[in-house]
Write a structure and sequence with these properties.
The protein is mainly alpha-helical. It has helices at residues 52-76, 80-86, 98-105, 108-140, 143-154, 164-173, 180-204, 208-216, 221-232, 234-249, 253-258, 267-270, 282-312. The protein has 13 helices and no strands. Belongs to the binding-protein-dependent transport system permease family.
Length: 317
C-alpha cells in the first residue's frame, strides 16, 4: 500500500523516450536506404556510363572531315603521274614541292590580289550598310522601318542564280562589266540580308536605358550610333565582317558572269588554269586550293569567338 507524498514534495521530471531512427516521427527525415540496407546514392554521385553510340558517331564524323584534308595535303607533295598511278589515298612515294612552285610562278598572286580587294571592299560595304539599316530598324520601330526590314528578310529567299540575268544587264548598263567594282556591288547586295538580320539581333540586346540616358544628356542619333551602338555591338559587327568575307572570298558566280579578262580574275576562276581540255593537273590544282584557303582560315582562326557570339544573338528579342 503506497502512502501519498507529503505536502510540498515535487516529483522528478519524467524522461521522454526518443523515437528510433526511421520511425516516421514528424520533424525528422528518415534515412534512405538502398538494397540490403545500404545508403542510397545520390543522382550525381553515380558514375556515368560511357556513350558508345556518341563515340562511334564522333569517330565517323572525324573520318569524314579528316579524309578530304588528308587527300588534299598528300596530293600536293607528289607528282601528277605518281598521283594517278598510286591513287589519292596512298602515301606519297617521293616528296616534292614542284606543285607549289608551279602555282607560285603562275598568275596566282594576281588572282590573290584581286580576291583580297573584292573581299575587303565587300566586307567594308556590308558592315557600313548593315549598321545604318539595323540602327533605325531597332530605334524607330515605325511601320516604314519594319517594312524595310521585311524587305531585307525577303532577300533571304531569292538565290543569286535566279536573278543573274537582270544583274548582268544592270552591270552592263552601268558600264561596270569586266571590272572588280562590278563584282563587288552584287556580292555585297546578296550578303546584306543576313548581315542586317545579325546586326538587328545584336542591337536589340543593348539595354534601352542606355539609349535614354544618352538622349537625356543631349546626344543625337549620330553620336549615339558612334559612342554607344558601335562599341557595344562589336561581336555582331565582327560576325558580319567574317560572313561577308567568306561569301566574297568563295564567290564564283558573279566573277564568272561579270568578268572576262585574265587581269580581273579571282582565285576561284584562276583554278581553271590547271584544267585543260584533255587532262587535269590534280596535284597543282589542289596546291592552289590549299594556298588559297590559308589567308581566310587564318582570319577565321582569330575571329571565331566573335563569330559565334554574334550568331548567338540572331534569335534575340
Amino acid at each position: 500500500m503506497q502512502h501519498p507524498p507529503p505536502p510540498g514534495h515535487r516529483s522528478p521530471p519524467s524522461r521522454k523516450l526518443l523515437p528510433a531512427a526511421g520511425s516516421g516521427t514528424p520533424g525528422r527525415r528518415p534515412r534512405r536506404t538502398g538494397r540490403a540496407g545500404s545508403p542510397a546514392r545520390r543522382p550525381g554521385s553515380a558514375a556515368r556510363r560511357p556513350n558508345y553510340l556518341a563515340g562511334l558517331g564522333s569517330l565517323v564524323w572525324l573520318v569524314v572531315v579528316a579524309l578530304p584534308l588528308y587527300v588534299l595535303v598528300t596530293a600536293t607533295v607528289q607528282g601528277r603521274d605518281a598521283y594517278f598511278d598510286r591513287g589519292p589515298l596512298s602515301l606519297p612515294s617521293e616528296f616534292t614541292l614542284d606543285n607549289y612552285r608551279r602555282v607560285l610562278e603562275s598568275d596566282f598572286f594576281v588572282y590573290l590580289g584581286n580576291t583580297a580587294l573584292v573581299t575587303l571592299a565587300s566586307a567594308a560595304l556590308a558592315v557600313a550598310l548593315s549598321v545604318t539599316v539595323a540602327y533605325p530598324v531597332v530605334r524607330t520601330r515605325s511601320r516604314s522601318s519594319q517594312r524595310v526590314f521585311g524587305l531585307f528578310l525577303l532577300g533571304l529567299a531569292i538565290p543569286a542564280q535566279a536573278v543573274i540575268i537582270p544583274v548582268y544587264l544592270i552591270i552592263t548598263k552601268l558600264r561596270l562589266y569586266d571590272t572588280l567594282f562590278g563584282v563587288i556591288l552584287p556580292t555585297t547586295a546578296f550578303t546584306l540580308p543576313v548581315c542586317v538580320l545579325i546586326l538587328v539581333g545584336a542591337l536589340r540586346d543593348i539595354d534601352e536605358e542606355l539609349y535614354e540616358s544618352m538622349a537625356l544628356d543631349g546626344a543625337g542619333p549620330v553620336r549615339i550610333l558612334l559612342q554607344l551602338v558601335l562599341p557595344l555591338s562589336r561581336a555582331g559587327i565582327s560576325t558580319v565582317g567574317v560572313y561577308a568575307s567568306l561569301q566574297a572570298w568563295n564567290g564564283f558566280l558573279f566573277p564568272l558572269i561579270l568578268t572576262q579578262s585574265e587581269g580581273n580574275r579571282v582565285l576561284t576562276l584562276g583554278l581553271y588554269d590547271y584544267v585543260g581540255q584533255f587532262r587535269v593537273d590534280v596535284p597543282a590544282l589542289l596546291a592552289a586550293v590549299l594556298l588559297s584557303i590559308i589567308p581566310l582560315f587564318t582570319v577565321y582562326l582569330f575571329a571565331r569567338r566573335q563569330l559565334i557570339n554574334g550568331l548567338m544573338g540572331v534569335g534575340g528579342r
